[in-house]
């Protein structure tokens, strides 16, 4: 499969005031169309719009880790920690799995990203990197 840029903001702190993000940018796709993972909305801090986009009509599988991680990030930034934890947990258990490229150029497994997001949410730890 050829890889395309698949923007996705992953891993946010539980409180909106302290929300910082790692940007994950790549996932393998069969076509060259970028997937609608609410990257622009999350990068702009429009978390309500991100939730609406990710929970509304989309061609993304409901189990897609990029969709779930971004949804968890939006929920975390809105202070909806239980919803964020549920989204990260669903991403961790998803049967869909692929490598994601972080903004710093490092590739990580989608389950690693979900597990790290959940740990950061549960422990209130700072994130690994700031968004670019």
Task: Describe this protein's structure.
The protein is α+β, with helices and mostly antiparallel strands and 132 residues long. The chain is built from 5 helices and 4 strands. The chain has helices at residues 39-43, 47-55, 65-77, 81-93, 110-123; strands at 3-10, 22-28, 99-102, 107-109. The protein has a 4-stranded antiparallel β-sheet. Helix 3 (65-77) packs parallel to helix 5 (110-123) and helix 4 (81-93) packs antiparallel against helix 5 (110-123). The longest helix is centred in the C-terminal third of the chain and has 14 residues, at 110-123. The chain is globular, with a radius of gyration of 13 Å.
Mean pLDDT: 73
* CATH topology tier name: Serine Threonine Protein Phosphatase 5, Tetratricopeptide repeat
Structural class, from secondary structure content?
alpha+beta
CATH class: Mainly Alpha
Largest sheet: 4 strands, antiparallel
Helix and strand run: EEHHHHEEH
Radius of gyration: 13 Å
How many structural domains can be distinguished in the coordinates?
A: 1
Give the number of helices: 5
